[in-house]
Amino acid sequence: MSKKPFYITTPIYYPSGNPHIGHCYTTVACDSIARFKRMQGYDVMFLTGTDEHGLKIEQKAVEKGVTPKEFVDVIVDRFKSLWKYMNVDYDRFIRTTDDYHVEAVQKIFKTLYDKGYIYKGEYSGKYCTPCESFWTDSQLDENGCCPECHRPVAMAKEEAYFFKMSPFAERIEKLLTETDFLRPKTRATELVNNFIKPGLEDLCVSRTTFKWGIPVTFDEGHVVYVWIDALSNYITAMGYMNGAYDDMNKFWPADVHMVAKDIMRFHAIIWPAILMALELPLPKHLAVHGWITFNGEKMSKSLGNVVDPFVLGERYGCDAIRYHILREMALGADSSFSNEILINRINSDLANGFGNLVSRTVAMADKYFGGILPSDRESAEIDEDFKAVVLNAFAETEKAMEETKIKQALEAIFKAVDRANKYIDETEPWKLGKDDSKKGRLASVLYNLLDAIRIISALLSPFMPSTMPKVWEQIGASDDDITYDKLSKFGVLPENVKVCKGEILFPRIDVEKEIEALNDIIKKNMETAQSNLSAEEKGEAKPDEDSGQEIELAPEICIDDFAKVEIRAAKVISAEKVKKSDKLLCLQLDDGMGGRQVVSGIAQYYAPEDLVGKTIQLIANLKPVKLRGVESFGMICAADTADGVKVIFLDDSIPAGAKIR
Ligand code: MSP
Predict the structure, then answer these.
(1) CB of 13 closer than 6 A to ligand 1?
(2) What is the whole-number distance in angstroms between the Cα of residue 262 and the centre of ligand 1?
(3) What pairs with residue 568 in β-bridges?
(4) How far is the CA of 529 from the centre of ligand 1 (A)?
(5) Is 30 exposed, middle or buried (0-12, 13-18, 19+ CB in 10 A)?
(6) CB–CB of 243/262 below 8 Å?
């Protein structure tokens, strides 16, 4: 019987700068889904690639004194090596400079023109050069700048071709609101209200002001402008209007396009319109995720806050990084990246949770039975509950993956990991091992654990593909034991299964040392970005020339006045910069009363990571206020000094919530 096809795509990336952790999310997520589907027996096509044309690339190449193609070649190689490093197993890689794609885009453009969907006109509007985007007035940010990079926009006018959007409005609205195309569907409202209801604007699809693009065959001087070139990759890579491949019948329509929210509109509205105009079927699902943020902002090279995935991979292994980013990001929401979350996740879930489960189980099988389990067994009632939880994790994972909910899938699998560790605590194998009459029971407990690890590790293998083969070696599982159809049942490992002690899968990380090392790396990145900014942009304060001034005290108060102020010790759990503010940090505090959020004007003096874990003084009964739209429930105490503001840190032995008087 022939396998069912499954086609999944990432966006194609701009090779304008080195890839960063933010880029990794979609690709690693798609890779995990592709691997899961392969494990389920699908014939998978996983496509990724690079989007190589446009003004930005042309300008960067000029700066470097190379041709645009020479410029992108180097960065495309970096993307490819990152995917290799992250163990991303794509089936096809498309470059928009590939001949077959160029030829097909030219044909697509001509077809749309011949059908009357593309017409010639003149474009005039607000244009952001770095983002290569025209924006309407209502889309600009509150300062009248580009809503994406917040840089100034300029009026621009040029002859251009346009793609008619209005004929498709009704069908697109239905697609978004009446089908399960969009994931999460909750995002449909913003698309309908912001773009469809006000009337779909025709899309500018050609440019004359730069050369680095696919030439329009019937009008010299025009090159195809970004979205027709870029979006078409999903079909040209399958052979649409070209002879390089012949996979349209097999793989189109795509099962899943996965993208981040900034390019949702292009995939949810423009792409369906192009496909409707070409009379092609529409993709089945568009899965939209949030951004990996760092200090509250989208992680990106231009913000200078990028953590190099190669550096992180080097320190913890690519599987730990894959796990971390996949586990943190829920479909539709942003996920904030911090060193603390990364390291704590690795320690709690991978070192203490899964890694410890495997090493304890294998070590006990080795210690009590010389590595080979005996056939004599004695089962107990408690085994059934344990097995049920593991099998339920399988069912939940399968469902979550069907819905492209990777975070939920991992949560389901880790429920089984936690249950298995609890099973060890409940059955106390170390006690059974001391009593010869309980060897049958011990063998049964260890077999159940090994078989559960077989199921759990196979389920984890699409997400952490480098580590799981090492687990299978340790628990004595053959390739045949981990096929998908065998993950919904217990009793698959051979009766006399033989374990083999191996290396520690995820070594525990010394949190303090590691955070220090990572902070150093990030600070260096920030400094490099800062050194490119002017003194004014850096917000550098004039040195205080008045430090020797006389101190003037406020009017005297009595002890009752002071008693009105409730000062409490609190611990900083996390901190991040408040968006669009140079001065404010938003702190999450453990105040011993269930936690609270406080906004403090100390961003010029402290990086968020300088505060995390510290004990501070909190004015706990201050009336809440909103600062830059963010609610603040109290104030933290700090001293004004000649060197700027210094937070009053307390001895860490003082517990959160302790009253200060
Ligand atoms: N070339 C276009 C896509 C064309 S698809 C037909 C593009 N390229 S990009 O390189 O700028 O971004 C590619 C993808 O990476 C986008 O989905 C973008 O949102 C995503 N990310 C870039 N930075 C990101 C984070 N910090 N977090 C999560 N995803 C991020 O857009």
Answers:
(1) yes
(2) 7
(3) 618, 659
(4) 21
(5) buried
(6) no
Q: Indicate which residue's Cα is closest to atom 23 of ligand 1.
A: 22
Structure-block tokens of residue 100: 């077959």
Q: Partners of 45 in the beta sheet? A: 7
- What is the rounded distance in angstroms from the CA atom of residue 415 to the CA atom of residue 412? 5
Cβ atoms < 10 Å from Cβ of 456? 26
Question: How many angstroms is it from 13 CA to the middle of ligand 1?
Answer: 6
Query: Distance from the CA of 29 to the center of ligand 1, in angstroms?
Result: 13
b vs e for 378-405, b when ≥16 Cβ sit within 10 Å of the residue's Cβ? eeeeebeebbebbbebbebbbebbeebb
Q: What is the rounded average pLDDT for all residues in the chain?
A: 89
* 14 CA: nearest ligand 1 atom: 10
Rounded Cα distance, 82 and 26, in Å: 13
User: Each residue of 93-122: pLDDT tens digit?
Assistant: 999 999 999 999 999 999 999 999 999 998
Peptide bond into 184 cis (omega under 30): yes
- Report pTM: 0.78
User: Which residue matches tokens 């902070």?
Assistant: 519
Lowest mean pLDDT: which of 278-287, 390-399, 543-552?
A: 543-552
Nearest ligand 1 atom to alpha carbon 293? 26
